[in-house]
Amino acid sequence: MPARLFLSSGDLVADRRYEFARDLQLKGDLAAAADLLTQAIELAPGFASAWFTLGEIRRQLGERDAAIAAFRSARDADADDRHGASVWLMRLGAEGLSDMPPAYVRTLFDQYAPKFEAALVDDLGYRGPSLLFKAVLAARGAVRKPAFFKRAIDLGCGTGLAAAAFAREVDHFTGIDLSPRMIERARATGLYAELEVADMLQGLRGKPDACAELILAADAMVYVANLVPLLKEARRVLVSGGLLAFTVETHRGDSVILGEGLRYAHGEAYVRSALQSAGLALSQLEALSARNEDNTPVPGLVVVAARP
Ligand SMILES: C[S@@+](CC[C@H](N)C(=O)[O-])C[C@H]1O[C@@H](n2cnc3c(N)ncnc32)[C@H](O)[C@@H]1O
Hints:
By secondary structure, the chain is α/β, with parallel strands linked by helices.
């Protein structure tokens, strides 16, 4: 897990109460932790980290309404919502699904960056890039075209694992990611000709029409609720016959849900209809898992679509 975000209240006593409360929370004494957090908040009413932790504890205690109120206060106290209180509000059903706050995703992955590859590849058996690679080779084989791409864009490129998988097949890679620390790691690989710290939809919007032959998104769509705007933009940016390849987590239903791990899971019917509304033609869709959780494969889809 990444290090936990702490935003000081500016009041030493309140900060100290928060630290004690965290110790108690980790030891499982939730009621005592909630008491201390309430005291900290009395001293510093705009203490976002204390509100957020109180929200977590109320949720752990099964006190849904109090959890919702605390998460709302956490978001009010930090308008950028770096803790991701709104993600919990969605998870608790207090608010409808919408995209995650960019500052939350950036903070999460900036903190994750130093141990990202060890955590994902070694601990969770991450295999998204190699699954995408096989799927892209199969899609190209099916239309008897070589799997060689002059220009490719890697959405949510992270530390560069997808570019590493495709390095020999791509001449010029552009990586786009919200997290500056992940981008630093991607830069250190030397695999990218260009790297941008940006939201992936905004990054694609800045690209000219028909400028890429391949767009990848390995384990990145799990942070996007509504895929349609991104898929439409990908279609515009791809050359005719160009490919978009991505992984999603999925579930048995048709819609989009926010899973327990605070990642979106897109139903297969949703993915098919989103591709259709974006004007992309499905080349491959396979039920394959990109990572494990508790040593069990997380249900997933590996998708390749072409711009007609
Ligand atoms: C689980 S990592 C996967 C990284 C890489 N694609 C890989 O396969 O190792 C997800 C990445 O997506 C990035 N990300 C999530 N939402 C994003 C968004 N809306 N725009 C740009 N990057 C985003 C995160 O910062 C993170 O680096």
